[in-house]
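Internal tracking record. Fields below are filled automatically when a chain is submitted to the structure queue. Please do not edit lines marked as system-generated. If the sequence contains nonstandard residues, flag them in the REMARKS field before resubmitting.
Queue: standard
Priority: normal
Entity type: single polypeptide chain
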Amino acid sequence: MASGLWGVGDAVWQTQVNGLYGTLFRRNKEAAFSNYRLWESMGFVIAYAYSTHLCARMKLYALLGVLCVGRKKRRRRLLHWKQLQSKRFLLNPKKLMMKKTILMMILLSHTCREILRIPL
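SYSTEM-GENERATED OUTPUT FOLLOWS
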């Protein structure tokens, strides 16, 4: 029962992520999907490489570290976009930051799922 629910949930999640990428990157769909698959596979490889060497607590600390680095980079990028906007460039930083935030949340939740799925 649980494995069936897990499979249905994973299928829905993958469909939603692919649909989101299709709407966010209308002009460069091929590049967006290939980039997504590249980093997804890289996450699988990294998680597999350290799965036997670290316990679940250390994996969660590593995930927290990645989250902190991502937030710091997002804040730096937001400041950069605000500086560009103050110079009257024709950019919409809110839309761009929304895309980056959504993508970061997707990547983080996907990584967390994969870390917790790996046996200890």
